[in-house]
Structure formats: C-alpha cells, structure tokens
Amino acid sequence: MTEHTSVAIAAVMPAAGIGKRMRSDVPKQYLQLHGKTILEHSVARLQAVPAVSQIWLALAADDPYFADTALAHSNIIRVKGGAERMHSVLNALQFIDEHQYPWVLVHDAARPLVRSSDIEHLIQRCLAVEQGGILACRVRDTMKRGELQVSETVSREHLWHALTPQFFPTALLRAALKDAITAGVHVTDEASAMEWAGHNVLLVEGHSDNIKITQPADLALAAFYLEQIV
Ligand code: C5P
What we know:
The protein has one domain: Spore Coat Polysaccharide Biosynthesis Protein SpsA, Chain A. The protein is an alpha/beta fold. It has six helices and eleven strands. The chain is 29% helix and 24% strand. The protein binds cytidine-5'-monophosphate (C5P).
C-alpha cells in the first residue's frame, strides 16, 4: 500500500449467526473448507492485510465451537453477538476506541474467499477521498421483481451486489447503527445504516467470487474457488 499504510485499522467480524439456510447441525462459519473452518479462512483473509491491526469477533453467547479452533489461542478480541447481524456489529463497535482506530472494516465470517488485494483496494479508495465504502460487484442477470409472477423487470443498469468488507469511519458507523436500531430500522449491512443516516457510500468493484456461504451448494463452489484464488 501507499501513503495510507500508516492508518491503524480495526476489523469487526460478525460470526454469531446460526446459518439456518445451510441446513447443517453446525453454524456455517464452523463448517470445514480445505481442512480449516470457514471462520478461520475469513479471519486469515483479514490478517493478510498489513493495515489491519486488531480484530473483534462477535460470537454467539453459547458458542461451543470456537474453543476448538486455532483462533481460540490468538489475540483476536471476542465480544458477544446480538439478535441480528446489526446488533452483533454494534456490540463489537462499542469496544473500539475511534481515536486509536478511526476506521473500521466489517467482514462477514461467511465470506472466506475475499482477496486481500480487494480489501486493500477498498481501503485505499476510501481513505483517498475520506469517505466510507463497500466492496461490490455488478449485477449480471436480468432482474425481476415479483412473488409467484413477474410484476416488473428492473433495469440492471446501476445495480450492484453489496459484498463485504464494508469500510467506514468508526464513530460514524457506530452512531448510524445505534440510531437505526433505536429508530426500528432493519438493516442487513453497514452501508444501509450509513445511507439511512445520510452519508455517501462509495462502490468499489471487487471480485464476484467473494461469495457468502449461504446454501449447501455454496460449500462445493467455495472449495473450487479456493483452489483458484491465491
Ligand atoms: O445469515 P447471514 O449470512 O446474513 O449472516 C451474515 C454474517 O452475520 C455471518 O457472518 C453471521 O455469522 C453474522 N451474524 C451475526 N449475528 C447474528 C446473525 C448473523 O454475527 N445475529
């Protein structure tokens, strides 16, 4: 990285979900991928970025799996997760000193394939303009809205998939999430809270193989991608 390398960056990883759609006994972040848990892969991706100085991991209160991972003996800071992703992220943010860490990356535990180069690109682009942003990829398919039948075709022009990491000034993100939760607004990513609070969010194009493990078939796909991605 260039002149921005000196900024110490905090990272939050929400990992307190149960991953219902995976239909597995074990939460998806603890499923094995090439001999390691998905969580371990995801953490390693963040650790590979030199500017990331500390990681806060939000775990379910009764998580019996973490202790068996190699991460149990690392210097990762564990915090309690919440009812939904936004609560887990906010819980972690409460522990981060924004003077020490003015910027924070938030990355899903269920995205083990993100390239370090994409994370560094996101950081550089955002710091260069002092504005938060997200990794995203352009929508490829024709988009339809509807339930059983198509009610309309939505133009895919200007449509993006929101990925993670998402990168924001720590204090602004904490305030936006707190205010959104207080107002009863349901947000499924950090950018939504920032948009709701009136902030601009930069779209930084990343690789579309940065998939979120969601359904059983995603595991085989992730195993395949892992062999291709360095
Ligand atoms: O379920 P979904 O794939 O949307 O979850 C995205 C991320 O948020 C996962 O890493 C999951 O572990 C995390 N999460 C959380 N706390 C919750 C629900 C989800 O940390 N209550």
